[in-house]
Write a structure and sequence with these properties.
The protein contains 5 helices and 13 strands. Strands 1, 4, 5, 6, 7, 8, 9 and 10 form an 8-stranded antiparallel β-sheet that branches. Strands 11-2-3-12-13 form a 5-stranded antiparallel β-sheet, with helices on one face. Helix 1 crosses helix 2. A hairpin with a 3-residue loop joins strand 8 and strand 9. It comes from Rhynchospora tenuis. One of its GO terms (cellular component) is nucleus. It catalyses: Cleavage of peptide bonds with very broad specificity.
Length: 233
């Protein structure tokens, strides 16, 4: 198979945003691909827009990065003019505006999450085309196809922070097990009245699901473990 190394960098991705009783938890895998080639196995798909608002990015890496850069700049100006932090709704609508006005040129689907003193923790989904939807939880990227039924069963109102964190990590690991375009590690960001907390879950700490192989540092480890011992004379 020929690998097209000139293909656009795409984050065939699993991104998740969940509200809980007090804030939001955002999560994402870390695999960025160029065609069939994994360009970056440990990328950070959760990007800061302001101190209290973050965005999970899926689609074209370049497109989502430039949207994040523009929105971060506009929100900085907005904060200076108002003398107070921008709300989550303002940040999400700026993302929506850029996505919608450039929908013919962009391949970007994002989840905006954050906390403000007016409405608490909020999750906004901005899929391809620039629609905006406020939801109690949102999933996106190629891995989300495997998660809709899981969230129908596992989601509940007024979760604690620990329950929301565990839900996000479990969902990301399930999607990574089934979706070839998702993988690597899981990163989470918790945003609430006390600030922002980032967490990192290495691939060797995630649960294994049906017929999944144990993570190894090298294929040589697998080969060496199956080589028979030499015969003694």
């Amino acid at each position: 198979m020929d690998l097209d190394l000139s293909a656009p960098h795409s984050m065939g991705t699993t991104i998740i945003g969940v509200t809980y009783n007090g804030g939001v938890v955002l999560g994402a895998d870390s695999r960025t691909s160029t065609g069939m080639y994994v360009a970056n196995r440990a990328s950070d798909k959760i990007t800061e827009l302001t101190d209290n608002v973050y965005v999970c990015r899926s689609g074209s890496a370049a497109d989502t990065q430039v949207i994040s850069d523009y929105v971060r700049y506009f929100l900085h100006q907005h904060t200076i003019q108002l003398g107070q932090p921008a709300t989550v709704k303002v940040a999400a609508n700026l993302v929506r505006l850029l996505s919608y006005q450039n929908k013919n040129m962009l391949q970007a689907g994002v989840i905006v999450g954050g906390w403000d003193k007016y409405e608490g923790g909020q999750i906004y989904s901005v899929p391809l085309g620039g629609t905006i939807l406020r939801q109690p939880f949102s999933i996106g990227g190629s891995g989300s196809s495997y998660l809709y039924g899981f969230f129908d069963q596992a989601w509940k109102e007024d979760m604690t922070h620990e329950e929301a964190e565990q839900l996000v990590v479990k969902a990301a690991s399930l999607a990574m097990a089934r979706d070839g375009a998702s993988g690597g590690v899981v990163r989470t960001v918790t945003i609430n009245a006390e600030g922002v907390t980032r967490k990192f879950y290495g691939g060797d700490t995630l649960p294994l699901w049906h017929e999944e192989l144990e993570p190894t540092n090298s294929l040589l480890d697998l080969l060496s473990s199956s080589v028979p011992e030499p015969m003694s004379t």
